[in-house]
Amino acid sequence: MNMHTRDSTPHPNQFALLRQRRFAPFFWTQFSGAANDNLFKFSLTVMVTYQLSVSWLPPALAGLVIGALFILPFLLFSATSGQLTDKYPKTLMIRAVKNLEIAIMLLAA
Predict the structure, then answer these.
(1) 41 in any annotated domain
(2) pLDDT, tens digit, for every residue of 3-27?
(3) Model pTM above 0.90
(4) How far is it, in rounded angstroms, from Cα 11 to Cα 13?
(5) Is 70 domain-assigned?
């Protein structure tokens, strides 16, 4: 058997995953969550630095503080969220988190 012969079947690419019924909803859920987080962080940073006058925080440091505050929940709750997703069904957890995310975004708007 020759080691240099190529397989005649085409190699699937990463975009083929988006057509799979099990992967596409998960991908779009993750995408929308990341987009919402970034949009919320950006709008809050702009609002604090350009519109609000915060006496204890100079505008140059506002972006750094807001970035640190957005990372803090990931550091604090990652172990707890891992335990919860091991205990409960993953689809239930994803739906609960996304519903909570929508509620938070509606309150922030």
Answers:
(1) yes
(2) 555 556 666 777 777 777 788 888 8
(3) no
(4) 6
(5) yes
